Amino acid sequence: MQSASAEICRAADAMRSAVFFGVCLAIGNRSRESTMSEEAQREPMTQSGGTATGEFFAQMVRDVGETVRREVEHLRADVGERAAGGAKGARLLAGAGAAGTVGVAAVGSLPLMALRRVMPAWMIALGVAGGAAGVAVVLTRRGLAELGSAAPLDAARIKEAARQAVRTLA
User: Fold this and answer.
1) What pTM value is reported for the model?
2) If I label 75, which of 40, 47, 91, 161 is the partner at 20 to 30 A Cα–Cα?
3) Which sequence spans correspond to the domains of the chain?
4) What is the pLDDT confidence band of residue 57, given thresholds at 50, 70 and 90?
């Protein structure tokens, strides 16, 4: 999961670099295109800044916008391809997990089959059920202890918080 987010971050960095490069190219191209002869053919400058400058910036904004749109589309396609590959990998891992579970269950049934030769079936079932219940109790106690240490329950603190809530509502 970290590698996928790292890839997305690298792709975003590449997009930022490409956009910056596109802006630099757009500025450079527009600077080279505006020669003295073109400026002479354009409308004369006005006191408010001139139309040549306005056209230059308008064209530059259009160029930058187009570059950004192209880069975003490219990034979307790249992320879509990566996500499809990641989804395929996740499906393969899920299948491997299911096959592994079946394998572990098969290996786990071997001792039960051996016990069946020396013990009646009800005794084996009772032993398996008791073992599973014991594991469940131990895991439950550990889980509750972890939750308790993460968020300790303090009766006085809870009562004071409840009183405070009632005061603010009243």
Assistant:
1) 0.37
2) 91
3) 2-109, 119-170
4) confident
